[in-house]
Amino acid sequence: MKKEPISEARNLQNGSPAGPKFAREAVELGDPRELFRFCPSCGSTGIGWSGRFWRCGTCGFEYFHNVAAAAGLILNSGGSCLFLRRAKEPRRGCLALPGGFVDPGEAAERALQRECREELGWAPENLRFLASYPNRYTFKGVEYWTCDLFFIADLNKKDIDRLAPDPEESTGMEWIEFSSIPWPSIAFESTRQALRQYLLRI
Ligand SMILES: [Zn+2]
C-alpha cells in the first residue's frame, strides 16, 4: 500500500471530498485529531485526521468516523406528545423523544420498536416516517455526527396506562400538548426540527 508522510495525511483536511467547510466544522467538534495518537493497525505515530477520516501515513490504514443512525418517536395521544426526561448524559434533565441508536444489521423501524420496549415497556406497531435531521451527540468526550430518523405513531388515551417507563433511562414521562412545547428544554436540535415539521402536518 502506498505510504504517505503524515504531513500529507493532515493536508487532506483542506482537500477532502467533502470540502474545506466540512473539515472546518469537524475540527470544531472537540477536535477529533486528539482521539487517536497511535495507529490502531501498526502502532506508529503516523496517524492523521483528514477532516473526514484517520489515515496512517506509515501503513496506509484508514478509519472513517462515520455518521451513526438513530430513530425517534413522536407519539401523539389526543393532541399531546410523549416526552421522556433524560436520566443520562448528554443533556441529562432535558426532554427527549423515545428512541435511540440503530444497531448493526438493524432496520430503523425495528430499532425504534426495540428502544420503545426498553424505555416504555411498550412498542408502537404502526410507524409512519416523518423526516430525518442531522444531529451531534457527545459520549465520553467523543462527538459523533448522527442522522436522526423520526417516526410518528398514535396512542389511544385508554392505552396510556400500558406505558411503563424504565427509571434508568428517564426520570419521568411527560405528556405535553403540541401547542405548548417548552422548546428550550428539548435535548436535541434535531428533535426540535422534527417537532416543527410535525406541527406543519397536524
Ligand atoms: Zn499504521
In brief:
The protein is α+β, with helices and mostly antiparallel strands and 202 residues long.
Written overview of the protein:
The protein has 202 residues and is an alpha+beta fold. The protein contains 4 helices and 10 strands. The strands form 2 sheets. Strands 4, 5, 6, 7, 8, 9 and 10 form a 7-stranded mixed β-sheet that branches. The longest helix is centred in the middle third of the chain and has 13 residues, at 108-120. The termini are far apart. Mean pLDDT is 85; it is low at 1-29. The structure holds zinc ion (ZN).
Helix content: 10-25%
**End-to-end Cα distance:** 56 Å
Q: Beta-strand level of the residues, as a percent range?
A: 25-35%
Bound molecules: zinc ion
The overall pLDDT, averaged over residues, is 85
Radius of gyration: 20 Å
Please tally the β strands and state the result. Answer: 10
Sheet bearing the most strands, described? 7 strands, mixed
What structural class do helix, strand and pairing data support? alpha+beta
Give the SSE string: HHEEEEEEEHEEEH
Low-pLDDT segments: 1-29
Assign an overall shape: elongated
Summed up, the helix count is 4
Keyphrases for this structure?
202 residues, alpha+beta, 7-stranded mixed beta sheet, 3-stranded antiparallel beta sheet, 10 strands, elongated, disordered N terminus
What are the SSEs and their pairings?
Blueprint: H1 6-11, H2 20-28, E1 47-49, E2 53-56, E3 62-64, E4 68-77, E5 80-86, E6 95-96, E7 99-101, H3 108-120, E8 128-139, E9 142-154, E10 170-177, H4 189-199
Parallel strand pairs: 4-9
Antiparallel strand pairs: 1-2, 2-3, 4-5, 4-7, 5-6, 5-10, 8-9
Bound molecules: zinc ion.
Zinc ion is lined by residues 39, 41-42, 44, 46, 56, 58-59, 61.
